[in-house]
Amino acid sequence: MQVITWKELPIANNPRELLLQIERGDESAAAELVRMYLPEIRRAVRVRLTDPRLRRVLDSADVCQSVFANFFLRVSLGEYDLDHPEDLAALLIAMARNKLLDQVRRLQSQKRDQRRMVVDGDQAMQGVVDSGDSPSRVVADRDLMAEVRRRMSTEEQQLADLRAAGLDWNEIAQQLNGNADSLRKKLTRAVDRITQELGLSQLQ
After folding, report:
1. Helix/strand/coil for 101
2. Which residues make Cβ contacts (< 8 Å) with residue 91, sequence separation at least 6?
């Protein structure tokens, strides 16, 4: 099977170009990426959303909204480095699957009346993705991004800044005299820690 690279795609619908724009805070680029990938992610969610109990508290739109919101937050911080278009689709589908699995675990652990159940993981993103707001607003939410950066160490902020400047992990490793994989994992752990502190971890 032929593997398509970002460079082989037209600029007008090249997800890699959109990701770079999203890292710079371009909300319109985020909205375009949602348009391109939403149907595929929604289909993947609907195939797995078979438990009637889960459907009472969650639908495919809820899952997709949460997945994209979390994805854009992490893209804005330069966490991801995707080599091929297929990698992006696979990542979004994996995030959606994890979201569903998390909800199933909560249903099993809480064992309470479904009419009273609140999907509390999404409450932390109210004002960003609630009331009809697009999840693409995450990239333009300055208060959210400022709070995330405030909770980073100086070194973690430096990694995010270098990623925002367009450097790949090998270039960052060379500049900081470190290991590319270790530095990438350091930023990932930082984002994981902060999203948990802010109550956003349920959106992973």
Report:
1. helix
2. 71, 80, 82
Calpha distance 9→16 (Å, rounded):
9
Q: Are 186 and 52 in contact (CB under 8 A)?
A: no
Q: Using pLDDT thresholds of 50, 70 and 90, give the confidence band for residue 201.
A: low
Residue 62 contacts residue 118 (beta carbons within 8 Å): no
Determine the 3-state secondary structure of 28 from DSSP: helix
Residues 132-177 pLDDT 10s:
456 667 766 777 888 888 999 999 999 998 988 878 899 999 999 9
Rg of the chain over CA atoms, in angstroms? 17
Residue with tokens 């990701």: 19
Torsion-angle region of residue 152: left (phi > 0), alpha (psi -120 to 50) or beta? beta
DSSP the chain: -PPPPGGGS-GGG-HHHHHHHHHTT-HHHHHHHHHHHHHHHHHHHHHH---HHHHHH--HHHHHHHHHHHHHHHHHTT-----SHHHHHHHHHHHHHHHHHHHHHHHHHH---GGG---GGGGGGTTTTSTT--GGGGGG-HHHHHHHHHTS-HHHHHHHHHHHTT--HHHHHHHHTS-HHHHHHHHHHHHHHHHHHTT-GGG-
